[in-house]
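Reply to dn_fold:

You asked what the input looked like. This is it:
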Amino acid sequence: MSKHAELIFIRGLPGSGKSYLTTALQAALDKDRLAVLDPDAVDRLSQAYQAHVDALTAEGVETALHLYRYLRAQAYQGIEAGKIIIWNQPFTNLEIFHKMIGRLRDHAREHEVELSILIVEVEADPTVARGRVAARKRSGGHGPSETTFERFVNDYQSFADEGYKAVTVSGADDVDKSVRTVLAALGPDVANPK
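and this is what came back:
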C-alpha cells in the first residue's frame, strides 16, 4: 500500500487528562501530518458542521449520531490523506468501538491505506477526575453532569486485552512521561519522521 495512516485513540474518564495529553502529543508529532478529533472541540455553528447535519437529517439519521458521524467523516479523510489522527474521546462502549474500528479499517482497505491503530488509556482516580471536571466547569469550561460522570465511571473498562495495540499512562504523571510512552509505542518512523 502506498499510504500509511496512524490512528491514536486517547480514552479515559472525563478529567483524566486526555485533552492535556492530546495537546502535548500535538507538539511532539509532525504537524503537517496531524489531524485531531475531539467532540468537545467541534464548532457546531460552523458551516461545515451545519451542512453535515443537514445531510444526515435528510437521510433520517438520528440526531444523537450527528457528532460521531462528523468525527468519523474527518477520520476517513485523515486516513485517505495518510495522516496521524488523534481521536480524543472516552469510548466506553466496547461493542460500538469494535464496529467503528471495523468501519475505519474497511475504509483504509478501500483506499489502499495501511492503517495502524494505537489505543492510549489515560488512567485516573475517579475522585481526582471528578475534581478536575468540577474545577474546569467553575472556570467556564465543559464537563459532564454528575449523573453522566457516574455513568462513565460505571461503564469504563480497559480495552487493552481486546486485541488492539494499547498503552496505559497515568493522568497523574508528568505529561512528558506520558508523551514518551506514546511515542515509543508508535515507533521511530512516526515519532521521528524523516
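The chain is about 50% helix and 20% strand.
Hope that clears it up.
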